[in-house]
Design a protein that fits this description.
The protein is α+β, with helices and mostly antiparallel strands. 75% of the residues lie in helices and 8% in strands. α1 runs antiparallel to α3. Keywords: Coiled coil, Hydrolase, Protease, Signal, Thiol protease.
């Protein structure tokens, strides 16, 4: 019963190993492609992060330039307004100066008129008194004292009035000239201020042009960086979509293989259980036959034993010893390449396939070399149709005849497998059936 359960366990484990290897082989290409896409995505995301940082710096630079241009525009506006105000004041000053010049011209005309009048009076006195008449003569020519007084008074009054008028005109003229000079001085200051303001306006316009050039360059750079960010973002989205698609395909493939594996395990379990029932039935039949034919069996035991020995290999009779000795390692051993060749390995259940078969045959007193290549030549080659329990069976794994086990019969073999350690496995279907190419060696 224990041996049959071990056979069932070995069959299920063999199917599980096949399923695991199927998943690995079926998805390895997709996983490699996904890893490649992930590496590309990581690179693109790194470049995108750098591009976004550069874009943020460009935007900040453009904003700073725009702020400077705005300040220049405000200063220009203030200066242009000041220039306009100065020009208005200059126009007013020029208009006032023109008015003063008109007034001065009128005063000069009045002075000239008064001078002409005085000249005319002097000429009149000369005409009345003769060509040699003088001011004294005019006075002395009076006819009596009253006429004298009258003449003196008249002449003095005329002279004083004319002098006062002339003095007044001269004072006005002096005042007008002073005012004119003051306005011309202010006008000169305004002209200087206007020239200075215009120079500042021109300088600031040059600054504005330079800033606008920098702004155009920064805007162009920002546009290029925005385009780069957009391209990298699109690349990243495409790679993310590819990665997601590959993950879905991998998961779908794993699910499909898992489903097939589960089905295969269920079939193997059912087959093994059917085999167990058949073995139990066979044992019951044998027990019944032994009870009813005890004497006949006893009398013919010698001949039957001789016939069985002729039909089986030299090892099959001792196969029970090998199975009993191996039971300690079922579920309690590890596949180690090169294992089973030292006392420590054997004590701790560390075997590879040929190391285990060598140790197993030592349990029945047969020495086998501990390598698959040597064990191929350790006995007689027989066909797969003639193989018997105890024969060595070989499988093509990592190389031709790379794995060896001990045939148990009914399509089962005992060996040290990489997935299970020491266990019984099924070679009629699945992984081991695909790798068995009919190589059998019978050890004598």
């Amino acid at each position: 019963m224990k041996q049959t359960k071990a056979l069932i366990s070995g069959a299920v484990l063999a199917v599980g190993l096949l399923g695991y290897q199927g998943v690995t082989e079926a998805t390895s290409g997709l996983e490699n492609e996904r890893d490649n896409v992930s590496d590309q995505l990581e690179q693109v995301e790194s470049e995108l992060s750098e591009a976004e940082a550069e874009l943020a710096a460009s935007i900040s630079e453009v904003e700073e330039i725009e702020s400077e241009i705005e300040e220049i525009e405000e200063a220009l506006q203030r200066n242009e307004e000041k220039v306009a105000e100065t020009e208005d004041e200059i126009a007013k000053k020029e208009e006032h100066i023109a008015e003063l010049e008109d007034e001065m011209a009128e005063l000069e005309a009045d002075i000239e008129d008064r001078m002409d009048l005085l000249k005319e009076r002097a000429s009149s006195y000369q005409r009345d008194g003769g060509p040699t008449t003088s001011y004294l003569e005019v006075i002395m020519g009076a006819e009596g004292f009253a006429d004298f007084i009258s003449r003196v008074f008249t002449v003095s009054q005329i002279a004083k009035a004319d002098q006062d008028f002339i003095d007044e005109l001269e004072e006005i003229q002096i005042e007008l000239e002073s005012t004119k000079e003051e306005h011309e001085s202010e006008l000169g200051n305004l002209e200087e201020e206007k020239t200075e303001l215009q120079g500042m306006v021109e300088y600031m316009e040059d600054q504005r042009e330079e800033q606008e050039t920098l702004q155009d360059e920064a805007e162009a750079m920002r546009a290029d960086q925005e385009a780069m960010v957009a391209d990298l973002t699109e690349d990243a989205e495409n790679l993310e979509a590819q990665e997601a698609d590959l993950m879905e395909r991998i998961e779908a493939e794993q699910a499909r293989i898992a489903e097939e594996e589960a089905q295969a395990e269920a079939e193997a379990q059912a087959e093994a259980e059917a085999q167990e029932e058949a073995d139990q039935q066979s044992q019951q039949n044998q027990s019944s036959s032994s009870s009813s034919n005890g004497s006949s069996s006893s009398s013919n035991s010698g001949g039957s034993g001789s016939s069985q020995a002729a039909a089986s290999s030299g090892v099959s009779g001792s196969l029970g010893t090998i199975m009993s000795a191996s039971q300690q390692y079922f579920g309690n051993s590890t596949y180690v390449f090169g294992g089973g060749r030292s006392a420590s390995d054997i004590a701790n259940g560390r075997f590879d396939c040929s190391g285990f078969t060598s140790w197993a045959f030592e349990q029945i007193g047969i020495h086998l070399p501990a390598s698959t290549d040597a064990q191929l030549n350790a006995g007689q080659r027989v066909s797969a149709d003639e193989m018997q329990p105890g024969d060595l069976v070989f499988f093509n794994t990592y190389k031709t005849n790379g794995h060896v086990g001990i045939y148990l019969g009914d399509g089962q073999f005992l060996g040290a497998q990489s997935s299970t350690g020491v266990a019984v496995a099924d070679m009629t279907s699945g992984y081991w059936a695909e790798r068995f190419q009919g190589v059998v060696v019978r050890v004598n």
